[in-house]
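Model it.
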Amino acid sequence: MDQSTERLLLIFDGRCGVCTRSVRMLGALDRGRRVTAIPCQRPGAAESVGLTPEDCESAAWAVAPDGRLYRGAEAMNVALSAALRTRLPHVLYELPMIGRWQDRVYRWVAANRRRLPGDVAHCSQHPEDCP
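Modeled.
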């Protein structure tokens, strides 16, 4: 991902407490405010970047300033790279063994996210974002 001053967009499941916690923790690391996180439930959020609501229900998505889309574990690594202003998380993800392992863990967490502990979901805290 380009280290420009443009912001990365992260689309996440706003009804998920684990997702909300991950976004909050990412925000704490993002001192330069290089990542904008919005819930996929916000009207028009998915469609504005060429995704369907179903795409957004299956995984988090990062949208680079150039429009490139990243899904799931890779999206989270790209967002972390932007927040920390270093390519290291994404470079590590691109190593085949690490990326495959992270993808498996991400899929497991995504499949079980409603049963895992997390923060109060974004949509519960901000119902105006999630009609």
